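Two quick folds needed for the group meeting slides. Do the first one here.
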Amino acid sequence: LELAEGGRQHVDGRTALALVRSRHPEQLMDGQWVPAQVDPDGRASAAGQVMDALVDQVQGSVTRPWRLQRVAWAVTGALTVDDGTSAAELASLATLDVGPVSVLPVGAPVDGTLLRFPSPETRAALTAAGMTCGG
């Protein structure tokens, strides 16, 4: 993934996926590629930004059926639904007010692994959303 400049970008699906999957981002500084500052939650934040943009794109297509059809064809291979899900139920998803995607806080990595346990902030965020977590 190589973006010519910083800031908000309009990218295709393949590039958005590359952004979400980026594990070792680099930035061009003074003509050289150098590792970007490590953000443990950077991938989750990037995924949230991509999901927000996708939701905006779908909701903006509701009144333009030709655009909605393009979006539907684009996600067909990546979307799985229950056998009993009707086309009307899928269409109703486009009008849901899902709000922004949030990245929940979690505890520090355990022994240098990817394992993290819920922090008090995680539990508070889940409780505020009407959910609970075990452990």
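Then this one, please, same format:
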Amino acid sequence: MIAPIMRHAGEVSREMRYLLTGSYPAFVTDRNPAWTGDEVPVFVYHSVEPKEFAGEMEYLARNGYSTITVGELLSFLEWGIRPAQRPVMLTFDDGYASVWTEGGPILKKHGFVGVAFIVPDWIGRPGYLSWDEVRAMQESRMFDVQSHGLSHRIMQGAGEPDLKGIRYELVESKRVIEEQLPGHRVQDYCFPRAEGSEEAVLIARETGFRTAFWGVMNGRAVNRKGDSPYHIARLKHDFLVRLPGKNRKSMASVMWGKSIRRLKGQPYA
């Protein structure tokens, strides 16, 4: 009981710090923002609540947004090539079963795609995906299955045991997923809890990963041309409905929704 309360308190504290320091983009904080076209927001989900998720996907579709792949994001970061008029990326952490059972049909309805960062050691646990479901996700082409580490280890520490552990997490997560998904290439990594180190980034590069996804980092919550593919910033999905568009939600409404989910004990609300 204490751990979830402490985790949520920490998340509230971080969000307040981001607001006060101007880390969030204009579309989150401004009353009437315009779409600039020079940035790509990446949104993070964990589990999927169907009614809420359906509403958010309807919002994207109704307002002309398109979801993009990691490859398309990389082209934007390196060359400034916009793959769509209003590109956004959807990512799903941890491998909750609801991402596929509840989220899959909704993505299919709109022709949207997302990246599923899974934890191999958690596959098959209650509430999480099975390997059969992971294979179905990848085969659907709606989801690109990538690595969230082998066991969700926090990728920090500069001592030799820490660096060996970090390398093991990366190499083994890649090996297990590729073994379970023959012909599929694992080359994108997401840091658990958005916590990592430059040593971990270097090891990710050395072990064949082309990207690393985080959270809000160094005062940056969106991605622009020239940003490093190993420092991809992400926002929580709540802020998706703050993107410019018809029926855009107020900040008060967004924060109230967060509070309700936290009271219900939803992960990383």
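Slide caption for protein two: The two ends are 16 Å apart (CA to CA).
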